[in-house]
Design brief:
- The protein has one domain: Rossmann fold, CATH 3.40.50.
- It is built from seven helices and ten strands.
- The structure holds adenosine-5'-diphosphate (2 copies).
- It is found in: Cell membrane.
- It comes from Paenalkalicoccus suaedae.
Length: 228
Amino acid sequence: MIEMQDVWKTYPNGVMAINGISIYIKKGEFVYVVGTSGAGKSTFIKMMYREEKPTRGIITIDGTKLATMKEKNIPYLRRKIGVVFQDFKLLPSLTVYENVAFALEVIEEKSANIKKRVMNVLDIVRLKNKARFMPHELSGGEQQRVAIARAIVNNPSVLIADEPTGNLDPDTSWEIMHILEEINERGTTVVMATHNRDIVNNMRKRVIAIDGGRISRDEVRGGYGYES
Ligand code: ADP
Ligand code: ADP
């Protein structure tokens, strides 16, 4: 599903963010990526959705080699991978419905299907009753649920989340985790970078720890494992 073979990333300013990582993530897995600030977590997951390109090494997502992929095929990659961010990244002038529909419209989905699919994912994140609301009328947790709906509306095989609970209180964070768990149970592979010790320790999923741009630990049912 997701494979990295001896992947390295040096930024143009010379910072060596990723230094020889090889991993294999199977279809349907739920994986936490942990590590101290600056360890390379964001760079690691940004390379999975081609926001950053590796300096060296091979990344394969669902059978597609990212390096040799033609620019014109990137939209197809974006249909295989949904992404959720710490700061939600909703479009402020669009309603909840429009924010989610937008992801389908940009890939030229047939308009007849759009409404059905948008309402279906808003149901999964329990926000059907707020379809007409604007983002600023929602709580942080609700905004993150809209972002999740947007990320899954294309039925991606992989959902990538970069600190999705970073701006949320503990109860709201758990709500978000239960939704991500449900999405994972429907068969979507989930890769989530996080600093949330409680969540990692309670969920007992695969944990990949990154330290200095290398994998320092990879456990099937791991814990958070840092003192702070
Ligand atoms: P984490 O997500 O674990 O905090 P990052 O992947 O963001 O780690 O950063 C790893 C290292 O790469 C850090 O030293 C960071 O300063 C550096 N870095 C991240 N993004 C860039 C960039 N766009 N240009 C230059 N250096 C970067
Ligand atoms: P560009 O078209 O300028 O290369 P991108 O398409 O890479 O820009 O990304 C545009 C914005 O969408 C960025 O904020 C990026 O992080 C985000 N993004 C990229 N891929 C996805 C995805 N699969 N799902 C959701 N958001 C994404």
